[in-house]
Design goal:
Elements (H helix, E strand, L loop, with lengths): L2 E9 L7 H13 L3 E15 L14 E5 L6 E6 L4 E6 L2 H8 L2 E16 L2 E10 L7 E8 L5 H20 L5 E4 L16 H25 L1
Antiparallel strand pairs: 1-8, 1-9, 2-3, 2-6, 3-4, 4-5, 6-7, 7-8
């Protein structure tokens, strides 16, 4: 499948994300001839175990992430980050967990916005919003390169695209920039050929960065 990078918006020190930045970023996409194709949405849910007996604490993962990706509507991805485990399951797993009452949803975050076609690239720019809320938590961008699924073979093309992108964004003097922090996929047992599990691991890493950014801002206030 096509390779993608998932990036998050890193605000400059003393600034926060806002909807104006999203508007500016989408204008940048259109300025480099991105063609709007429609909406997209991914969801991350934090789960924690419902332990009826304290003796079971060691037998259940303390918590994990569940990820729903738009390109795989019939699949659901489970990530236990401390153990470096990523699993692909049928989307019905969420109903099974609900019936078993083994895990409880703590919070869900939606990643949603617009999708653009740009030659051999597909871009998705979106807001990060808590479920049932318009309280903006962050901004993400997916950059997908359609012809190649090998991460190493696509690396140079992706880096060249990001150079062009950064130049286009710099003209607007925005208070921040998009950051790509590639996880160590090997720790999760993933190889060079790109899969949806790679995407899930990237979203989990982005989530951790967004939380760290929010906590840093709160720490300064």
């Amino acid at each position: 499948m096509p390779l993608k990078w998932v990036l998050h918006w890193q605000p400059n020190a003393g600034t926060t994300v806002n909807s104006q930045i999203i508007n500016e970023v989408t204008q940048v996409v259109e300025s480099i001839n991105g063609i709007k194709e429609g909406r997209w949405k991914a969801t991350i849910t934090f789960y924690k175990p419902l332990l009826r007996e304290q003796t079971l604490v060691g037998e259940y993962p303390r918590d994990f992430l569940g990820i729903a990706l738009p390109e795989q509507p019939n699949k659901y991805y489970l990530i236990i980050r401390p153990l470096r485990i990523v699993l692909e399951a049928d989307s019905t797993i969420t109903m099974i967990m609900e019936k078993l009452q083994s895990y409880k949803q703590r919070v869900s975050l939606n990643f949603e916005g617009f999708q653009y076609q740009l030659g051999d690239f597909q871009l998705r720019v979106g807001k990060v919003l808590p479920n049932h809320s318009e309280n903006l938590r962050g901004i993400v961008m997916e950059v997908e390169y359609l012809p190649i699924s090998s991460m190493e073979k696509a690396r140079q093309v992706m880096e060249e695209f990001m150079t062009i992108w950064d130049q286009a964004v710099s003209k607007r003097a925005l208070p921040g920039h998009f950051v790509h922090m590639e996880p160590n996929f090997g720790e999760f047992g993933l190889g060079d050929q790109y899969t949806s599990q790679h995407t899930a691991v990237q979203y989990a890493a982005v989530m951790a960065q967004l939380i760290a950014t929010v906590q840093a801002v709160q720490g300064r206030n």
